[in-house]
Amino acid sequence: MQPSKLLGYLPPDLTHDVTHLILRTYPVKVLIGTLTRLTGALPYRLRLLNRVIDSPIGIGAGIDKDGLLISLMSRLPIGFHIVGSVTLKPRRGNPKPRMRRYPGLDAMVNAMGLPSRGVDFLKGILNNECVRWPRSKLLGVSVAGFSETEFKLLLDSLTPYMDCVDFIEINVSSPTYGGSWTEPHRLNELLNSLKGYDKLVIKLPLLSSINDEVKLIKLIINHNPFGLTIANTLSIKADLPMGYGGLSGKPLLGIVINLIKLTRRIGYGGLIIGLGGFMRGIDIIKGIKAEADLIGLVTGFAMEGPLVVYRIINELRRLQPG
Ligand SMILES: Cc1cc2nc3c(=O)[nH]c(=O)nc-3n(C[C@H](O)[C@H](O)[C@H](O)COP(=O)(O)O)c2cc1C
């Protein structure tokens, strides 16, 4: 039986913590480095930010909240990695259990509650890892603030790292905020207050009303951000102590692809990172055809671990040989 399947029998929160510990060990990093060398040249190398990037496929926020997996990610055949979401001060997040898996649906629901060791811890990690992070991969940091001041303090503390960090993702869309940042007036004020900062990628929420979603996309695009991540999880009622959670995985794919197309049709020409249910080679092709620049995996990685990346690359090779 595959180790990833064996872990599937454990409670999801325990599986998550155990997998994280295993992935941080030296033998796993060596194994991943070897697998990547054996994989050979990747399909779809691309040019972004004036350099050649290994792949449009990468890892979205939530897998590596504190940067402890940066070293592992540098050895994977991916083109980008988003650390976080990181908060200003350490937070424990919600009590466990705080996630559920629905393997039959290729879906998960989580109510992590933005646990983070805090930005000072991440700065310590970046001090060590930045020198080793490859130029052929983008590094993003997702920040989560509970006020305008918190967002600004987070951005100020990361400013000295902007040689190594390629973009900062502004998380205004986690279900944990209870919708407070998706209120248009409040979001507009936040984005106004962040005008002086460079390389901001705004992470879009998934709302239950299409009209509200389109209004929010237009509002964000008016601020002409460097990039957009489309999208975060969809807040739903859930069989978890919190009573709600963010739905991720396959059920989001169609919505996300249509939102990417719509955003391009509205005329947005900046960077788009597609996130939501991308789990197979064919999904990646659909995301690129919808004109996303980069496609992230989160639930796929949470369910299969790093091997998901090699599986998807093999599927892409079979779909588009040569
Ligand atoms: C366990 C888990 C934790 C997550 N944590 C974060 C987070 O801290 N910040 C954030 O912006 N998004 C977070 N997300 C949302 C993902 O980045 C992504 O937007 C969403 O899950 C859709 O992609 P997917 O279907 O590939 O998972 C998390 C998702 C999961 C499943």
UniProtKB/TrEMBL annotation:
GO terms for biological process: 'de novo' pyrimidine nucleobase biosynthetic process; 'de novo' UMP biosynthetic process. GO terms for cellular component: cytoplasm. Pfam families: DHO_dh. Its cofactor is FMN. Residues 52-318 form the Dihydroorotate dehydrogenase catalytic domain. It comes from the Archaea. It is an enzyme of class 1 (oxidoreductase). PROSITE patterns: DHODEHASE_1. Pathway: Pyrimidine metabolism; UMP biosynthesis via de novo pathway. Catalyzes the conversion of dihydroorotate to orotate with quinone as electron acceptor. This is Dihydroorotate oxidase. It comes from Caldivirga maquilingensis (strain ATCC 700844 / DSM 13496 / JCM 10307 / IC-167).
